[in-house]
Amino acid sequence: MTSPRPALALSALLAVAGVTHFAYPKPYDRIVPTALPGSARTWTYVSGVAELAVAAAVAAPRTRKLGGLAAAALFTAVFPANIKMALDARGRSRGEQLATVARLPLQVPLVIWALRVSRSAA
C-alpha cells in the first residue's frame, strides 16, 4: 500500500497557495501575463479557486488520480506567470532577481510530484 503522505503534502501546498490568492492577491495580480484578457485580479481569483479545487481532488483518495493530473496541468499552466515574475524582477535587487530565476526550474519537480501522486493513486 502506498503512503498517502506525498498526496496530502501536495494537497496542503496547493491549499495554502490557493488561500493566499485571496488573502494576499496583489503579488499574484502583478505576475498575471498581460496577454490574458480581463483584469489581473479576476485571474488571481480564478487561479486561487483552481488551486483549492485541485487540492481537494488530490486530498480525496477517490479523485486523487485525476487530482494529480490536474495539479501537473496547473503547475504547467502557471509557468508563464513565473517567467513574467522573473522578467519583471529586472532592475530590482540582485537577491530578488536570483530568487525569481531560481524558482523557474522548481516547477519541474512540482509537475513530477503531481504525476507521481496520480500514478500512485489506487
From TrEMBL:
Domain of life, per lineage: Bacteria
Methylamine utilisation protein MauE domain residues: 7-77
Compartments, as annotated in UniProt: Membrane
Membrane topology: Multi-pass membrane protein
Stored Pfam families: MauE
Keyword list, A-Z: Membrane, Signal, Transmembrane, Transmembrane helix
Signal peptide: 1-25
Principal subcellular localisation of the protein: membrane
Coiled-coil annotated residue ranges, if any: none
Protein name per its UniProtKB record: MauE/DoxX family redox-associated membrane protein
Organism whose genome encodes this protein: Kutzneria chonburiensis
